[in-house]
Design brief:
This protein is α/β, with parallel strands linked by helices. The protein has 19 helices and six strands. Strands 1-6-5-2-3-4 form a six-stranded mixed sheet, sandwiched between helices. The structure holds flavin-adenine dinucleotide. Flavin-adenine dinucleotide binds next to helix 9, helix 11, helix 15 and helix 17.
């Protein structure tokens, strides 16, 4: 299990203080970073300090949500540590890292987390602290699942699934739960009791059969190991379908951003075949062109897209199938693929509670061919997969989704 630890700096020093920077896993149960740091301090009789680090966010709504959720985190963590501090990312690390033996931190995958890690790393070298990153928020540590960027779900599936037994050990589960953990668990329980049996229909936006766990996973209020363990006795086809999303797709996303730090750069985010096909179709005539403002103001001719934008803006989420449709339409209605990529990322990371995650970057890149395959050639999309509203009408009760979103818009606008 200690293969979850990645030693960045190995140091033997005579200082007597251990620090855990909680940057991604804001919980107690199955928090491997907390478990290792706490036990290391306890074993050596060192003082243990926890720093809860405010996450990087673009939208105040997300930060407010985060603070509401961690309301009692500090208090509950005092059971483990001598001191618990809630700090911003510009905290004076010179002071924090003074006289420290070892630093533990949740593993970084995205650039803004690497930036924070880098600041710590520089000082840790200077101060001769040991520094360890711990992979708490994935089932199988990324470098152990695979030593390279994977081509698709097909190529990573077996590598991850065969290693689950090695990483399913639970830690700190006898401890009390925080408010955020209680809430995450209630959502999980509702999913198990009422939705999992219909998960084969989860693609239908007019139904509500997905788990709604993504914001909880984003902030690490719950671990994928906890979710897996709780649902496991089911072992139905639907359970397997769900694990495909929770473990295979999600950890493929982590694999992607970890091995391709250009995940947010249009020129490097997808595969050669996709760039070639886009190059061949850049001059294709677009029947509709919309700006980001048109999209935000629900001013497109497409009521399904507008409804998806309502869900995004008013509820901070969007049904998984609609996310694909939404991003494909942005490609169709924007003159340059590069602009489309940036508009999609900008909206995704600003409005979604689960934005600014590996899943978001990967989901958008997927719409540009990443982890997908070449399809039949057509206008604008070339060989990129195309989606149209006939598909929505044919497969789902999409009018029900539109009605629901318009109702939510009205309620929100009238303060109901
Ligand atoms: C264009 C686009 C943008 C996306 N943006 C985000 C985003 O910002 N944040 C985000 O968490 N997910 C994103 N996704 C992936 C997926 O749509 C969401 O994870 C899912 O809709 C979240 O709802 P849920 O928790 O109810 O999902 P469930 O169906 O209940 O799935 C359970 C969990 O599995 C993971 N998962 C599900 N589908 C995927 C997937 N396709 N790829 C990777 N992991 C997955 C998520 O962590 C999810 O919480 C995006 C997908 C696309 C196509």
């Amino acid at each position: 299990m200690d293969r979850r630890i990645f030693t960045v700096i190995d140091s033997v020093n005579d200082k007597r203080k251990v620090i855990y920077f909680m940057t991604k896993a804001f919980r107690i149960n199955n928090n491997y970073s907390l478990y290792f740091s706490y036990n290391y301090a306890k074993k050596n009789n060192f003082d243990f300090f926890i720093y809860i680090v405010e996450p990087y966010e673009l939208n105040k709504r997300n930060l407010d949500y985060f603070y509401d959720m961690i309301i009692d985190l500090k208090e509950k963590l005092l059971k483990f540590a001598k001191e618990v501090n809630l700090v911003k990312r510009d905290v004076d690390l010179d002071i924090v890292l003074d006289n420290v033996n070892s630093i533990y931190i949740d593993k970084a995958y995205l650039k803004f987390d690497f930036e924070f890690l880098l600041k710590i790393k520089k000082l840790a070298y200077k101060n001769d602290n040991s520094l360890k990153e711990v992979e708490s928020n994935v089932f199988v540590p990324i470098r152990i699942a695979s030593d390279k960027e994977e081509y698709s779900a097909r190529t990573i599936r077996k590598k991850i699934m065969s290693k689950l037994p090695d990483f399913k050990k639970q830690v700190l589960t006898d401890e009390i739960k925080t408010t955020a953990e209680e809430k995450a668990f209630a959502v999980l329980k509702d999913f198990k009791d009422n939705k999992l049996k219909a998960y084969d229909e989860h693609n239908d936006p007019s139904n509500d059969y997905t788990s709604g766990l993504s914001p909880y996973l984003k902030y690490g209020f719950i671990s994928p190991v906890t979710i897996y363990d709780y649902l496991k006795p089911d072992s139905s086809e639907n359970f397997n379908n769900f694990i495909e999303e929770l473990v295979v797709r999600r950890e493929l996303a982590y694999n992607y951003v970890y091995y391709n730090q250009n995940y947010d750069n249009f020129n490097y985010m997808t595969d050669d075949w996709a760039y070639k096909t886009m190059e061949n179709h850049i001059e294709d005539k677009r029947e509709y062109i919309y700006t980001k403002d048109d999209m935000i103001n629900f001013n497109t001719h497409d009521e399904y897209f507008n409804a998806a934008m309502m869900e995004m803006i008013y509820l901070g989420r969007m049904h998984s199938y609609m996310r694909m449709y939404w991003c494909k339409k942005i490609i169709e209605w924007t003159n340059s693929y590069k602009d489309a990529f940036h508009i999609a990322l900008e909206l995704n990371n600003y409005y979604f509670y689960d934005g600014l995650t590996p899943n978001g970057y990967t989901g958008v890149a997927w719409c540009f061919g990443k982890h997908d395959r070449a399809w039949f050639e057509r206008d604008i999309f070339g060989k990129l997969r195309y989606m149209n509203s006939n598909g929505l009408k044919r497969k789902f009760n999409i009018e029900k989704y539109v009605e629901k979103m318009n109702r939510i818009k009205e309620e929100k606008e009238n303060g109901i």
